[in-house]
Amino acid sequence: METITEVAKLVETPSERFTKLVMREFTGSSEEVQVTNFQKRLIQNYFIKVDQTLKTSELKRLGKSKNQDSVPVTWDNLNISKLAIDVMSFSSVGLDAMQPNHINLIPYKNNGTGKYDMTFIIGYRGLELKAKKYGLDIPDDVIVELVYSTDKFKQIKKDLSNKIEGFIFDITDDFNRGDIIGGFYYHSFNDDPTKNKIRVFNLKDIEKRKPKYASAEFWGGTDYNGNKTDGWFELMAEKTICRSAWNSITIDSEKIDNHLISVLDNDSHDKALPTVEDAVATEVKENANSKLIDFSTFDDVLIETKVAEPVKAIRPAKELFETKAVATIEADF
Question: Is residue 124 located within the same domain as residue 19?
Fold first, then answer.
């Protein structure tokens, strides 16, 4: 029994092997960087999320009736080196790929390498976590609210006779608040209320922050079939103000580390890429028989594609991480 137990301990799961790969790729040598048990768990969560994303994306690729990329979206065709660096950086910041609205993963074809780069887009909860960890002056409370036409709202700005910013907000009809006319966020500091800050957004301020190719399924309007839809405008408007509330917190230069620099650099690069909403809108236009579901989770979007022809089995990650057959990562395992 002791022998069997010892052998069992030597058998590593695919996620454990992925964790070792990430650490080796990050250091650029056979030596492994030291990470905490918590970060190891986060890295293993990235493995699960990447695997799920690849399988979903490959099903979408196979289901496209036109403009189908010839390269399968699989582990074999993924830029492992870039993925390892990004996973190490984002997990070091504390962003969890399995938590809603922390991180969105989207594979993009890199025509220069012929492989897919896994793009990391920070969700609004991820922005909150980043601000709390690296912020210079972190508020004790952040309030985000939408304002409707029947509400009574007035911001109170700081002036010569008033040292504390605030607001008056009264909901007159809980179940029929009317149309959205704007919103606001409020930073509150318990120890020094004179630092309290309010920022008000009218409807125009919110709408101008919509993605360039915003999907009607999210923001409302006319969908790809020419049908009018309300979408999830309330959720998207609240998300927009929430992102602004956490993005407005200044980063403390003394807290900046190499991992945050990598995350900020990645975020800056990804501003040139389509947003999550843009990517979904493109998928809808290219697949008339696609159905979008689960919009209520703000950033996390699942696209369910109906495939007309039988789909070949997608190589499972478990097999990939238990074999030496894949030349691209053979030396790493």
Answer: yes
Q: Which two tokens stand for residue 99?
A: 């938590």
Q: Which of 21, 23, 22, 76 is nearest to 54 (CA)?
A: 76
Residues in the chain: 333
Determine, yes or no, domain membership for 194.
Answer: yes
Please count the structural domains in the chain: 2
123 and 222 in a single domain? The answer is no
Number of neighbouring beta carbons within 10 Å of residue 284: 19
Shared domain for 15 and 105, answered yes or no, is yes
- Name 143's bridge partners: 186
Residue 233: both structure tokens together:
């405008």
Instruction: Give Cβ neighbours of residue 37 (< 8 Å, ≥ 6 apart).
Output: none
Global model pTM greater than 0.90: no
Q: pLDDT truncated to tens, each residue of the chain (333 aa)?
A: 555 555 555 566 778 888 888 877 666 544 556 778 899 899 999 999 999 999 999 998 998 888 888 999 999 999 998 899 899 889 988 999 999 999 989 998 988 899 999 989 899 999 999 999 999 999 999 999 999 999 999 999 999 999 999 999 999 999 999 999 999 999 999 999 999 999 999 999 999 988 776 777 788 887 767 788 878 899 999 999 999 999 999 999 888 877 777 777 766 554 545 555 555 555 444 444 433 333 333 343 333 333 333 334 444 555 444 433 332 333 232
Instruction: Let me know whether 97 and 178 are in one domain.
Output: no
Domain of 205 in residue numbering reads as 139-248
- 19 and 163 together in one domain: no
Q: Is the dihedral of CA 280, 282, 285, 290 positive or negative?
A: negative
* Tokens 């454990």 found at: 16
Does 289 fall in a domain?
A: no
